[in-house]
């Protein structure tokens, strides 16, 4: 009901308080934590398949049987501590940067930022998503490197995070934690740009058809956008994993035949193992990506809604 003053004039309802920046970070971090726990086995299978080198293509079922037989049920959660740190911090940074960047681009004035011109909603979503992915990747990449190292380790003895960090820094320096960062950035920028753009486009289409936004809707739309965007950039993810695996000796290469960079790695994979190798591990990855992205958006939407409501109640709104 619209409030009316004693003189009969219509009063404007007070504008809702701006959402504090920490809410996006907390909601994103919680979403990342929850999704990581649910999708950890699929992540490990994908990494193992990407690191395999040879003429015989590994299958997801064969890899599952091998992990279970040789490493037991807990083997599917190798590297889970580093991966959990990765997902929590990545999602927290990603959603915080995306919200702030999208707000800035929507509010920016063309007159003040020449030759800036006002962007369409889809362009805003792509640029904001790409910026969020780039920032989150640079900030959290060492966790991704550790996650890959632990997941690729097929031995029975697991190294501690502290021990691994100390050993890597001593032998390779700070740069050792950023092995494969170039293809990672090259894949994450279009991946997250397409992800958020597809998400916002589908969400807007559903709203125009009279469907209210909910956590379930966010999850379904996020699953589709996550699967499509991941498929589009998957070869670069394989190159990144190969370069990471080479750094800590998990990729079998003859002496003197190390990959010299992302381009060399990609070309040699195609030439020596065939183009299909770039898509090795695609099946578990698409399942994980669709489930992970869908659940991430669903958890984020639900958690943010809860925190915003609690914040407004605290302010008495």
Description of the structure:
The chain is an all-alpha fold and 317 residues long. Helix 1 packs across helix 3 and helix 7 crosses helix 9.
Task: Explain briefly what this protein structure is.
This protein is mainly α and 317 residues long.
Class by helix and strand content?
Answer: mainly alpha
| Uncertain spans | 1-7, 9-15
**Helix and strand run:** HHHHHHHHH
By DSSP, the count of extended strands is 0
Strand content: under 5%
Give average pLDDT, whole number. 80
Radius of gyration: 22 Å
Instruction: Please give the share of residues in helix.
Output: over 70%
Q: Could you give the distance between the termini?
A: 15 Å
**Shape, principal axes of CA atoms:** globular
Output the number of helix runs.
9
Biggest beta sheet summary: none
State the oligomer. Answer: single chain
Characteristic key phrases:
317 residues; mainly alpha; 70% helix; globular; transmembrane; transport
Give me the secondary-structure topology.
Layout (H helix, E strand, L loop, with lengths): L20 H31 L8 H12 L8 H28 L13 H32 L8 H12 L8 H28 L6 H33 L14 H12 L8 H34 L2
Helix pairs in contact: 1-3, 1-9, 3-4, 4-6, 6-7, 7-8, 7-9
